[in-house]
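== Polypeptide entry ==
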Amino acid sequence: MPTFSAPDGTRLAYRVTGDGEPLVCLPGGPSDSRYLGDLGGLSAHRRLITLDLRGTGRSAVPEDPASYRCDRLVGDVEALRAHLGLSRIDLLAHSGGANLAAQYAARHPEKVARLALIGPGARAVGIAVTGETRRELALLRSDEPWFPAAFAALEAIAQGTGSDWEAVAPFFCGRWDAAARQHHAAGRPANGEAVALFAAEGAFDPESTRAALAAFEAPVLLVVGEFDLNSPPRTVTEFAELFPGATLVVQPGAGHYPWLDDADRFVATTTAFLNR
């Protein structure tokens, strides 16, 4: 894997998949970016430059653990852009990585040509997901064979009497089959410290980020699965409204990984946006 140096000297790695115009991709987690794969075949249309955030995948563990904080990672994305020799980047981010992408776009708006947020986390802009929103969404899956156990675990989490997030994993997928189970296992974060410190105190300044995004002029796409319990459509709709003219797409039948649930639909939606 190719590597480059972060501003503090930490060696960071990235994957290159496909051909064509580059698309910088940020994973959630923070976890090894390999779970993104080729984003359902998007690599047939774009050259995917997929970053392993510091301390994940093949990127080095930083000397300063405080540098795992989301706002500190903005410098890593900017270093990658400079390393690639690009004046502006098309930027795609999934899940928690959308918090990083939002802060990068807020801080460096002139260096983002297009921004695509997939199943985005919204802590960077101060949008919280309520337990009731998750509960209402979960109830749409009541006909699934796995529903009773998963819903009981979700209710326990909401009531503060449980913390078994593994038990609610089926809610994050449009189909809870063997492929989904394998993908879920492969995508679990391995660096607990990176996860714990990503959202540490000071990581987000929602008021200033929202103000910056309100003036963000580049095209923006937000894609969310119909059943995405992590990033419910209601929450992502609120996120989309922060931009002057974002395009919001709710992918039918999909969960938190829309490129797995219907790759053709996801790729068609994303390429149409990137080629616009």
Notes: The CA atoms of residues 73 and 168 lie 29 Å apart. The radius of gyration is 18 Å.
